[in-house]
From TrEMBL:
PANTHER family membership: NHL REPEAT-CONTAINING PROTEIN 2
Name this protein carries in UniProt: Thiol-disulfide isomerase or thioredoxin
Origin species: Micromonospora echinospora
Molecular-function GO term, any one: isomerase activity
Cross-referenced InterPro entries: 6-blade_b-propeller_TolB-like, NHL2_NHL_rpt_dom, NHL_repeat, Thioredoxin-like_fold, Thioredoxin-like_sf, Thioredoxin_domain
């Protein structure tokens, strides 16, 4: 999810926190919370939206803090939606369960709280002290360590003042549901016709009989974790994509299926005869490094929310949703590396190393093996890789979405998560937030709807018999489409609403503009020059003509830009990072702070000639 116009951490003295108001509360047992109810506790407001992978990263970053500071810290998720589907209260309730949100959530469908707290990015965190004052705001992810230091400071200050009250928080867990699957993510057909399904919310894999209902076995304990071992003791964390390896590759590698273990930032290998699970790629740490095109030892490289997998060009391609790229993994050589994308979150076609994506979440290979189809979820786009180029079949960009059929250049999707290539060359799309399965025909370049009324379909699977199964994630089941759904008679044409998420643009002057990325090391850290320059800044623009000068990469966090006066609007894409290390310890831990911005700008003659962005800092 692109940050809007500012990111980092800032403090303002004695700013009273606005009252908490919204459409409904979740995870409170029906109770409406107020700031008075939370007085005496440290309150952390997490402004999030459930489509946003960066927001999902923050949920996982907060879990250890919630456990460590459970008697003094109250986390409240303020759900501020981007997509129309996310405004549905039932969809929000499902997402809260799906992602294991174990704190109160305030439903803010019109972004009232978002505006009250001056949030400008998904995700944004605001810290309120025990006396009810906002003491810090941070945008983006990767703030867990800084938050821990801040919470320690607030505990010390308010215990001394007598204003800190310890005790249980207001979280009330919902009733435990009873279904065979819980928010299944992806599925593959095994030899013999059985189905292997990633049972994401139950942190396991389930093998089903060909009927899609009868459980053959479960792989994984169902508890969140990353333990290797037999089927009955191995653990996963919200697994998603599955890739069945070719027989000759499986024989050499020692496992048959590769699993995208999404929240663990790992790839796991599964032997189907025994159910044995082995970690085959990733360290378990989330990727926060620089991009290169080298091959790496697969167990030594960090990954970021791998979401789907496909066997293409004699290797496993990874939809690396967390950093808006495609990567590759070679099971026999046990190596991995970057395949496509720059980490810039946007829609731009071109050579693989230069193209832009946004949370790629579904992959499928054409019957002839030439084309790799990609569900690019945040751009609501169907895209493809062929001949070392990334192209777009359907989709307009980050903020245009809807349910519109017809010519592909006019059709719209809404946050698709899955794709399935058909033998005739067409492709089915799990159009998740429209609750539909759509079909794109490259021969006619037309889009049609073959099924709707589905509950967040996240994958589509074609069986050897020609049946189409839909992973109907929010209905916790696999659904078989009617035999005639794929025929011309079975398809329909929908001319639904068109939506656009509007962002307030930043006004900048034509001509010379100074871009300043502000970074202040967190308490107890210093800039780290051990491995070269401690900072890096990459700037590009859409359209590229917006910048006459200033695009490219460098190590200075200040950059002179020249804005073309004939281009009156566009988006500046800015990526900045800073390396720090702990001060107190000679061999202290190293840290990398990194943020991407997509800043909408409007060129105005009398606008400021300086554009400040806060990577991390303190503003007194």
């Amino acid at each position: 999810m692109p940050a809007w116009q500012g990111c980092g951490m800032s403090t303002s003295p004695r700013v009273r926190a606005p009252e908490l108001r919204g459409r409904q509360w979740l995870n409170t047992g029906g109770r409406n919370l107020t700031l008075r109810d939370l007085r005496g506790r440290i309150l952390l407001l997490d402004f999030w939206t459930f489509c946003c992978v960066n927001c999902l990263h923050v949920l996982d970053e907060l879990r250890p803090l919630e456990e460590k500071y459970g008697d003094v810290l109250v986390v409240v998720g303020v759900h501020s939606p981007k997509f129309e589907h996310e405004k549905d209260p039932d969809a929000l309730a499902a997402a809260v369960e799906r992602y294991g949100v174990h704190h109160p959530v305030l439903d803010d469908p019109e972004l009232d709280m978002w505006q009250q707290y001056a949030a400008k990015a998904w995700p944004t965190l605001s810290v309120v002290d025990p006396e009810g004052y906002v003491v810090a705001t941070m945008a983006g992810e990767g703030h867990a360590e800084g938050l821990a230091r801040l919470i320690d400071e607030l505990i010390a200050v308010h215990e001394a003042k007598g204003t800190l009250h310890r005790g249980d928080g207001p979280y009330v867990p919902p009733a435990e549901p009873e279904t065979t699957l819980r928010f299944p993510g992806k599925a593959v057909v095994l030899d013999g016709g059985n189905l292997l399904v990633s049972d994401s919310a139950r942190h396991s894999l389930v093998e089903l009989a060909p009927d899609g209902e009868t459980v053959v076995r479960r792989i994984g304990t169902g508890e969140r974790g990353s333990a290797d071992g037999p089927a009955g003791s191995a653990t996963f964390s919200e697994p998603q994509g599955l890739c069945l390896l070719p027989t000759h590759v499986a024989e050499v590698s020692g496992y048959d299926v590769v699993v995208a273990d999404t929240v663990n930032h790992l790839l796991r290998g599964v032997r189907l005869d025994t159910g044995e699970v082995t970690t085959v790629a990733g360290t378990g740490r989330q990727w926060r490094s620089t991009v290169d095109d080298h091959a790496h030892d697969a167990r030594s490289i960090d990954l970021s929310s791998p979401w789907d997998l496909a066997w293409y060009e004699d290797r496993t391609v990874i939809a690396m949703a967390g950093i808006h790229q495609l990567w590759w993994f070679e099971p026999v050589k046990r190596t991995a590396g970057m395949y496509a994308g720059t980490t810039v979150e946007a829609l731009r076609d071109g050579l693989l190393a230069e193209a832009w994506m946004a949370q790629p979440s579904g992959l499928s290979v054409s019957a002839d093996g030439r084309r790799l189809w990609v569900a690019d979820s945040e751009t609501s786009a169907l895209r493809y890789v062929e001949n070392d180029v990334l192209g777009t079949a359907v989709g307009q960009g980050l903020f245009d979405f809807g349910h519109v059929d017809g010519p592909a250049d006019q059709a719209l999707l809404q946050h698709p998560l899955g794709v399935c290539a058909l033998p005739d060359g067409s492709v089915l799309v799990a159009d998740t937030y429209n609750g539909a399965v759509r079909r794109f025909d490259p021969a006619t370049r037309m889009v049609s709807t073959v099924a709707d009324g589905l509950a967040e379909p996240s994958d589509v699977v074609l069986t050897p018999a020609g049946d189409v199964l839909v992973v109907e994630s929010a209905a916790h089941r696999l659904t078989r489409l009617a035999p005639g759904a794929l025929s011309a008679v079975g398809a329909s044409t929908v001319d639904g609403p068109r939506h656009r998420t509007e962002r307030p643009p930043t006004e900048i002057a034509a001509g010379e503009v100074t871009l300043d990325v502000i970074f202040t090391p967190p308490p107890g850290q210093k800039m780290d020059e051990s491995f070269g320059p401690s900072t890096r800044l990459v700037v590009s623009a859409s359209p590229p003509e917006l910048l006459s000068e200033g695009a490219g990469a460098g190590t200075d966090l200040s950059r002179r830009l020249v804005v073309d006066p004939t281009v009156r609007a566009g988006v500046l894409q800015v990526t900045a990072q800073a390396a720090t290390c702990d001060v107190a310890d000679e061999h202290g831990a190293c840290h990398l702070t990194r943020q991407d911005w997509g800043v909408p700008v409007r060129v105005v003659d009398d606008a400021p000639a300086r554009l400040p962005l806060v990577l991390r800092g303190l503003d007194a």
